[in-house]
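From: lab user (bench 3)
To: helpdesk
Subject: output format question, protein + zinc ion

Hello, I'm new to running complex predictions and I'm not sure whether the block I got back is the full result or only part of it. Here's what I submitted:
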Amino acid sequence: MRKILQYGSPILETPSKPVKNINAPEVQNIINEMLKILKVEADRSAGLSAPQIGELLNIAICRRTDLENDDLNTKPSLIEWEVMINPKILSKSKEKSINWEGCLSVNDGDLFGRVERPQEIEVEYIDIAGKPKKLGASGFFSHVVQHEVDHLKGILFLKYIPDPTELYTSDELE
Ligand SMILES: [Zn+2]
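Helpdesk reply: Thanks, we reran it on our side. This is the complete output you should expect:
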């Protein structure tokens, strides 16, 4: 399985490029690798972007937490992963929401902080079947989508938490 790049890697702070041919074997291969990682990391992960495995392509996979009602305790086999190719956020609400975020590329997923983001967004993308799709996201799911789309711009959630004392490991949070 591919390694997840960690904070400090310049790739994580480099903008990705649009996917031109969704059916290209390299692209399908990257998506499959990402899904494989997410299945293993399902109990502590809400998404993954291609740059995190070293591929500067606009591919993000977001966990459909909006379809779950079990606070991230949903059985891995029941989790739905939304593959978003060339995602673009079309609109953002003025209202904000604050949620805890972490990232598999920051301290191996064990560093969390409160991030404020627009509460509701609309995103358009090409799905895994190659079809254009539009989706509204709110609350925590909206954070998931914005976090992953940020990765494609070379932005980490740490950017929104300027004070490092506002970051906590899971031990510290308990
Ligand atoms: Zn992340």
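A quick orientation on your result: Helices lie at 25-40, 139-152, 170-173. Let us know if anything else is unclear.
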